[in-house]
Specification:
Largest sheet: 8 strands, mixed
CATH class: Alpha Beta
Distance between the termini: 61 Å
Order of helices and strands: HEHEHEHEHEEEEEHEE
Number of strands: 11
Strand content: 25-35%
CATH topology: Glutaconate Coenzyme A-transferase
Shape: globular
């Protein structure tokens, strides 16, 4: 990288510095908007003991499911894990430490971390196992749970468009956990569908400013559909 140009030419360079036992955030929702190439690169690296923060754990043969197959993830913090048999086996056997977190709480923990807010109170989870061991408080007659915010060593993000300075635009449902995770990583790496020159993005349409982004790489994506349902054709 030279000056404000944050584009790297290889996945090895994109993930330089990622080591065992680090915490990673991985954008996406199901298989929508995940940084496919960055995940694939991690499977080629001699790393393990990772703490992975993501909405879900992918499926058995795609997304974070690849890392689970190689036993690279030690702790998984997620809100939905229902499509991954490998995840289920590792969780039930005790091999994988799992921290299930309500989806809205997970999103706010990441957003707060990116904003420098150490913790916040939420009513979600009060009176359930989620609140065990956490501070609670009654405010205006309602009970709340204190939730600590989240940051990570690396945030792996997928964007629709990025310019060479790291300004990002997300598209449709890929605007899920990606924007907030981009702000919460010590090192934020973006895998983009399109990379353009500075000035080509409409400033009013930029979702994440480049100040949060450290590296950008051009990606190619399979865009797999997690659950494909089609209607049977009607016979004439």
């Amino acid at each position: 990288m030279a000056g404000l140009n944050k584009v790297v030419s290889s996945y090895e360079e994109a993930l330089d510095g990622l080591k065992s036992d680090m915490t990673i955030m991985v954008g996406g929702f199901g298989l929508c908007g995940i940084p496919e190439g960055l995940i694939a690169q991690m499977t080629k690296m001699d790393i393990n003991g990772l703490t992975a923060i993501s909405n879900n754990a992918g499926v058995d043969d795609f997304g974070l499911g690849f890392l689970l197959q190689k036993r690279q993830i030690a702790t998984m913090m997620a809100s939905y894990v229902g499509e991954n048999a490998t995840f289920e086996k590792q969780m039930l056997s005790g091999e994988l430490n799992v921290i299930l977190t309500p989806q809205g709480t997970l999103a706010e923990k990441i957003r707060a971390g990116g904003a420098g807010i150490p913790a916040f109170f939420t009513a979600t989870g009060y009176g359930t196992p989620i609140a065990e061991g956490k501070e609670t408080r009654k405010i205006d007659g309602r009970h709340y749970v204190l939730e600590p915010s989240l940051t990570s060593d690396f945030a792996l993000v997928r964007a629709w468009k990025a310019d060479t300075m790291g300004n990002l635009v997300f598209r449709k449902t890929a605007s899920n956990f990606n924007p907030m995770m981009a702000t919460a990583g010590k090192i934020t790496v973006v895998e983009a569908e399109h990379i353009v020159e500075p000035g080509e993005l409409d400033p009013d349409h930029i979702h994440t400013p480049g100040i949060y982004v450290d590296r950008v790489i051009q990606g190619t994506f399979e865009k797999r559909i997690e659950q494909r349902t089609v209607k049977a054709s009607e016979q004439a």
